[in-house]
Amino acid sequence: MHQEVVTALALHLEVDYWRLLHICDDDCVLCRLQQLLGFAAPTCVRRNIVPHADYVSICIKRVMPATVLTLYIVLILILVYVWKRYSVIEYLTANGIRYYDFGDRRSARISVGLIGSVHGNEPVGHVALSELVRDAWFDKFASRGLFIRVIPRPNPWGLKNGMRYQPSMMHPDINRNFAGEGTDPTSREILRLIGDMDMIIDIHEGYDFHLLNPQSVGSTLSPSNSGDAIAIAKLAVSRLNQDIIDPFHKFIILFDQACVIPNTLACYRKGKQAQYILVEISGQNDIQPIDVRKKQAFVIIDVALNYLSSR
User: Fold this and answer.
1) Are 269 and 276 within 8 A, CB to CB?
2) pTM for the complete prediction?
């Protein structure tokens, strides 16, 4: 009868049976509960019998502290998850360039700079990098010994207006301003932020597919002449082409082509004999849907960071 009473009360109060069995172990309390719940029971004659409604409140008061503690712990875990998920710190330079850091540069084995949308009419770098930043996707690579600095939109005015250039009469094209240590405030800020990184991945968009139109560098990767950059480019092209059906839309590697145009970021890195990959996704004028281009950017970034973090 003891077990039946406690089971019935547990169902009534929607609390755990074993917890209720532990705290409601007073025989007189159980005697009164039997009467309350309609079970046959002798008259309760023990001392200090209180009105029957209080028996329920007694049990609730005893169960409540443990329940509140459990809910409090769950709430803390939820808050920690939300903080981890959304608490990416955004840095802002004096020139208005926003960037994000993942990992500890002092203890990292390898530093990586990711930059996109230097040209405002090439939005996929901004779209892909911003989404990965928002999802704290880079955290897992930071825990593997990488320091990652992300600059999704170094040309905010151009990106907002769909224009290639920044609003500057003297130095409109940011990617022609990397002579020396930079010839305009934006290029100098970019070099200050990522110029000395071990690896830079620079995401651009071409206006066509190189295999269809050799005048365009769309759907190409141009690595610097170093083992890691070339290895990453080969792995990325192999992965990318698995999902591309049209043979003329496939990616290829352009060797020794990163610094064809003077004063680009590629040329700056070549002068420093530093590792660099120029990514050119076919995307200007929406020649491919943005989701396709974004997925291709994800693949390249994923291949590069997995490769570097496994070294």
Assistant:
1) yes
2) 0.74
